[in-house]
Every structure is written in structure tokens, then in C-alpha cells.
Fold this sequence. Notes:
Immunoglobulin-like; 3 domains; AP2_Mu_C_sf; protein transport; Clathrin_mu_CS; membrane
Amino acid sequence: MCMLYLHQDYFGVCSEPVIKDNVVVVYEVLEEMLDNGFPLATESNILKELIKPPTILRTVVNTITGSTNVGDQLPTGQLSVVPWRRTGVKYTNNEAYFDVIEEIDAIIDKSGSTVTAEIQGVVDACVKLTGMPDLTLSFMNPRLLDDVSFHPCVRFKRWESERILSFIPPDGNFRLLSYHVSAQNLVAIPVYVKHNISFRDSSSLGRFEITVGPKQTMGKTIEGVIVISQMPKGVLNMSLTPSQGTHTFDPVTKMLSWDVGKINPQKLPSLKGTMSLQAGASKPDENPTINLQFKIQQLAISGKTQSESSGYVWRKVQTL
């Protein structure tokens, strides 16, 4: 995860073509990150001083002069008591942003009840502050957080005693913490799915209808909704009409995908139509598995709220 995060910070995306195009830089970064196979330097701002991020101009200069992206001087932060932050940082505009991103993985039965659910969350930060700032973050209900993993800058003893995050942050982008929220602490799932899928014994046609709607979203908009369902093997084809968005059905894999987009509570999106069934096949299952993906900005489904006592603001809270 650390290497993936760093590669995204260096190159924008982490993919096979990008790694092939920047294989020398990748090896240089790995050489600085690891010492005999053990993590040594993993801070993005320190690594960027050691190994300069690739640019078109730097690539051209390196080709002509035969130089490399390796820096000539050891970062000043490496010799301080806070090696994750370089010294002498100066900004005209001081700002710090914190993004809370939560991913919920839940199983809902056909009656709408939650069978099992869990939340994996992270707090990503972008800090651009002069000097050596000392920040404090507190949560209104920190007991919800379980299996918490901190950035080395966090003072763990204070978290253990007061459940307060106190830290001198690195410069730039970094992941402050990751956490898990167990099922017993979850609030209601903020979206529901109603379906009506039926097959007749004496007919080669079946009926399909599915509707998606919001539930307890606190007025927030549900975006990026995608419905995916694995249809029974006896379904040959589907003739469906969506009220919004686009859909596809693969007759080979029997996979139905409906890209809904944004949900309007005043006009709930639906997908209706018929299914062509294989002649002579047994009656298929009327309750196929339905997978739902969605995104909600400015809503933490765990119910975790936060405050910041150092004069900076939260930029984004997101549920996936």
C-alpha cells in the first residue's frame, strides 16, 4: 500500500505502462525506501528530495548530460528528530486539508436487513504550512475506531490516554491514519434496492424490475451508482429500459451492469423489462445476487465526526 501510494504521488497513477516508462526512477525510489529489505525512508517529501520526480524537461536534460534524478544533498529532515518533515519549509499561504474516505462493504438480505457490514476508512492529508507546525485533531466519538494504524508522526501515547491526534505533520500529501469500524457500530445503510424478478414455468419469458433509492443520507446526494448482477445461466438475453443511465448485458457471462449515475430522490431510477429464457431449462433462481457501488460526498457513514483545534479545515468527507 505504501509503495502504491508513493508511485501515485510520483507519477499520478500506478500502472504497468507507467512503471515501464519510468523503470529507472522506480528502482531509484526502491533503493532509497529499503535497506536490506527493511523499510527505511517512506515519506514522500523526503524521497522527492532524494529522487527528483520525473518531468519532460528533467528527462531531456538527463539524456543530454548523462545525469540522474538522484539528488546531490541529503535532505535536512533526515538528520532531525522528525525525519518525516524537511526543515526550512516556507509558504506564502498556509493551509492544511484533510480528506476522510470510508468504504463500506455490506451484505443486505432481500427484506432489506443488514446481514453483515464493515467499514474501512482513511484520513488523507495535504499540509502546506511554514516552519514546524504542531497540529491537534479530535473526534467526537473516537471509540468507534478499531484497528487504527497511524502515520509515524502521530504521538501514540496521547492517543492512548486522551483519544486525541497530536502530531507534527510531513510536508505535502500523506496518509494520517487508517481505521476499521465493526458491524455493531454501523448506522443504517444509506441506499436501498427493490427488485422484482420473476419467471413463469410455462413461459420462455421472465420479468425484471429493479429500483434504487436513498435512505437516511442526511440530505446528501448519492453519486456514481453502479448496479451489477450475475443473472442465472438460463437467461439468454434481456430487453430492458432504464429510466436513467445506461446498461449492458453480456449473454456469455450473464453479467448485467447498470450505470445509474446520480440519484434524484424526487424521481427514483429504475430498470425494467423482460428476459428471454432457455427453452426446456429449469426455473432459474428469482433472487440473484445484486452488487451496488455508490459514492456520497460529505457523509461519514460510521457516524464519526471530527473537530480541529489548530485553525484548519476538513476538505472532504466521502463514503464509497
